[in-house]
Design a protein that fits this description.
mainly beta, Immunoglobulin-like, 5-stranded mixed sheet, 1 helix, disordered N terminus, signal
Length: about 130
């Protein structure tokens, strides 16, 4: 019984520590262009900013106007453009763009759990 308990604890510890993750900080200036490459196949980006209390989403699309959405119908203005290759570009970053960005549809890298990359856009000098 002790061996089974030890194995369970060690297995859980290994599983928790073997999760891929990355936090990247991108320092930006208001009014300037900003770009981040999330990588091929990332055609949906989720963000958390002061522009809304809900998570906001941007889909790669030929008809993008830069707007983010929380429910598919509302529009949160931005100069963002998400390319099909996973590159997110802001023509002119605003305070409403400062926040955390994730890729909710990124597939897991077998045998690892889902990769979590959080990009935090922050103001220069903060």
């Amino acid at each position: 019984m002790k061996n089974l308990l030890l194995f369970t604890v060690l297995f859980f510890a290994f599983a928790v520590t073997d999760v891929e993750g990355l936090i990247t900080r991108v320092v930006v200036e208001i009014g300037k262009e900003a770009t981040y490459d999330f990588g091929e196949g990332n055609f949906l980006i989720k963000r958390y900013t002061s522009a809304s209390s809900n998570p906001q989403y941007l889909f790669a699309s030929p008809d993008q106007d830069g707007s983010w959405t929380t429910d598919g119908t509302d529009k949160i203005p931005s100069s963002a453009h998400l390319s099909w290759n996973g590159t997110l570009t802001f023509k002119s970053i605003t305070k409403n763009d400062i926040g955390s960005y994730e890729m909710p549809l990124k597939p897991p890298s077998v045998p690892f759990a889902q990769e979590s990359i959080v990009v935090e856009f922050e103001l220069a000098g903060s």
